[in-house]
Automatic annotation (TrEMBL), chains A, B:
Pfam families the UniProt entry points to: polyprenyl_synt
Highest taxon above the source species: Bacteria
Keywords assigned: Magnesium, Metal-binding, Transferase
UniProt lineage: Bacteria, Bacillati, Actinomycetota, Actinomycetes, Streptosporangiales
Species annotation: Actinomadura soli
Family according to the record: Belongs to the FPP/GGPP synthase family.
GO MF annotations, alphabetized: metal ion binding; prenyltransferase activity
Gene3D superfamilies on file: Farnesyl Diphosphate Synthase
Name of the molecule in the record: Polyprenyl synthetase family protein
GO BP annotations, alphabetical order: isoprenoid biosynthetic process
Amino acid sequence: MTTVPVSLTDVRELVDGALRAAVGRLDPRTYRVAAYHLGWTDEEGRPRKTPAGKALRPALALLSARAGLAPPESALPGAVAVELTHAFSLLHDDIMDGDRTRRHRPAAWTVFGEASAILAGDALLALAVEVLLEAPGQGSARAARALTATTRRLITGQALDMDFETRRQISVDECLAMASDKTAALLACSCSIGAVLDGAPESLSDALDAFGADLGIAFQLVDDLLGIWGDPATTGKPALSDLRSRKMSLPIVAALNADRPEAALLAELYARPDLAEDDLEQVAALVEAAGGRAWAEMEAESRIQRAAEHLVSARLPEPVRAEFLHIADFVTRRDH
Amino acid sequence: MTTVPVSLTDVRELVDGALRAAVGRLDPRTYRVAAYHLGWTDEEGRPRKTPAGKALRPALALLSARAGLAPPESALPGAVAVELTHAFSLLHDDIMDGDRTRRHRPAAWTVFGEASAILAGDALLALAVEVLLEAPGQGSARAARALTATTRRLITGQALDMDFETRRQISVDECLAMASDKTAALLACSCSIGAVLDGAPESLSDALDAFGADLGIAFQLVDDLLGIWGDPATTGKPALSDLRSRKMSLPIVAALNADRPEAALLAELYARPDLAEDDLEQVAALVEAAGGRAWAEMEAESRIQRAAEHLVSARLPEPVRAEFLHIADFVTRRDH
């Protein structure tokens, strides 16, 4: 099992208090849903010990403050805001996609009902912007503007993703555009928000944003690979889960668009309404045979390389650059 | 039929262009849902001629700029933002409450599905903040902060409203607190956002906010009266609609808490799971006999008076004060 980089565990403690303080401002009914969704409490509102999530976005946010030579704490409102935005999008996505499981537990909407889950998501979204606007310093409004623009990209990506479910033909470029909005935009925002809060020049925040955008595509590619070939014990999702739900993820779309005989066979099989559990292994084998797996692995590597190049042009302090690269490495090698 | 004040129709044209420009920035799938919900298009995306809504909040927003001696156009981003926030909350509330009709038409979620309606609401919320943060001038971040705080109050009010549905005993104070969050907060924000955008002193923006808060409670009381005794031809809702859905609106809660024999009879009847269509007239008569109707009418009048007093203390230019009062009068005398 891959280990979480040290900076990620450090961050979790630093951000946890600020995140709890922010969410603690919600009314009790909304808080209950949010606290469950964030993994802090169980269905009955009792505290849980297991830490939730990877805290990847907050780690990137704090690191981005250091990129501009500011102390990591100065980016705390940014770290909280990106994590709240991430939580909002997962909460609403689970309802929209009808996903009943999130991080090995029943999704919040299955526990509290759709209405309360919609409302809690709304609250987290509003709170994210509020926290940023309350941040001291001149960069606060600029950071809030970046976050709302990012949120709208998340929404565009989700709209495109839902549209894919009604379509047969999707190009690799369309799928990359979707991932760029739905996944990469928030990672890009996380990688630059600390610098933006600190009032860093645009040349620096743009370079960090570009790093995060490529990192984000790599992240999605790895996620998609795990969605087919990941180990259920570590991913928390059933084996072959993306195939079972007929997801149009990047390796699958790449395989479907490949100029190979396996692509046609895959398309025929994947379109069958009566695709049986036993056929899923064959679908996975066809995605691999059509080159979808190899393409996704190579594309992820190449995105990570491109991401690293943006850091070079940003002329970061060496320890900060090393930490960004360490997280990038973690993202591509993770098993969950 | 009551007529719409002149300033409200003027506003509609001024704001309409800015609102369409903002919503036009959404991706095409999300735009389709938003444009239908805003009354601009039909189910097929074809333009409609009927203007939608009362544009009450934008009118107040533009007027609030004039309160600080700024030109009304300077509050356009504020007017757009409060209308987008209002649209967001109606869109999500209809899903949460299972309301299938909105302004004489099928609610957006019944046409486009819940998932698309959730997403479109999210987009309108994010867009509202974005529009404010893009506004020129120093007041932009302060206005955005006021709007996100208001949005969280809308959410608290909706959470409380949903909680009411599971309870038998609700006090008038609780019901007023709910209306204060769910309805009055956004009207209060609308009444002050133009002044805030203009960088007006807090004493002025606070007074305008207080005016809007009392106006908002009056607005809700009138809404609740129309929900029982309104004419279906003008309200667009079936007769006695709030009784049919067992809503715990202000006149009903006041009647239930009255120290009169009719209150007990009303409570007994209202709690019946098999309340028939024929019994609704009797319920309405009991709300009236227990004093719920008279209380709501008097409370609305008294709130309007209190609202007017806040304007006196704000020392507004006389024409601006007259227009605020004109709108307040419209709110209490409207029939839909």
